[in-house]
Amino acid sequence: MQQTMVTFSLHRNGVVLLALGALLLGGLLYLAGCLVGQRHAAAALAAGTPPALPRPGKAAAVKLPAAKAPAVPGVPGVPAAATAAAAAPETFALRAGAFTDEAEAKALAQDLAGRGLQASVVAVPTSGGALLHTVVAGNYASRQAAAAAAAELARRQGLSLTVVARPAR
Q1: Which superfamily does 88-165 belong to?
Q2: What b/e sequence results for 122-146 when a residue is b if at least 16 CB atoms lie within 10 Å of its CB, and e otherwise?
């Protein structure tokens, strides 16, 4: 029986190509991670979850002292902004979605209008400077009333809605 021996050797060109391929694969994996992170952040923002805390070591934003609000005439020690906030109670809405594309948001608002809901598109700026176009429906005096309406719409029409504080138009 005759045995043959096979040897494997890489030349300089093979080693260079192997190293470049490894670098390219690492770069592609890094970019894929960045894209997944961006989508995860957009989904978290659309779901209404609070933003992540800043990482340790990052510089914190400097807070400047607020300008003093003018006092309410006839009421000593009460600024006008405090009475304005008390006069306008917080209302709630049902968020149906959030989109970076305004056309998609308007299409969802029209779909909801076809189902008998009064929906509107509200542009909300993100921390990155981009605009998110959120689709909200309804105007409820309490979170409980909005949650009950969301549950009823989920049961009747199969809609998945989130209760949010009604954004300013």
Answers
A1: Sporulation related repeat (3.30.70.1070)
A2: beeeeeeeeebbbbbbbebeeeeeb
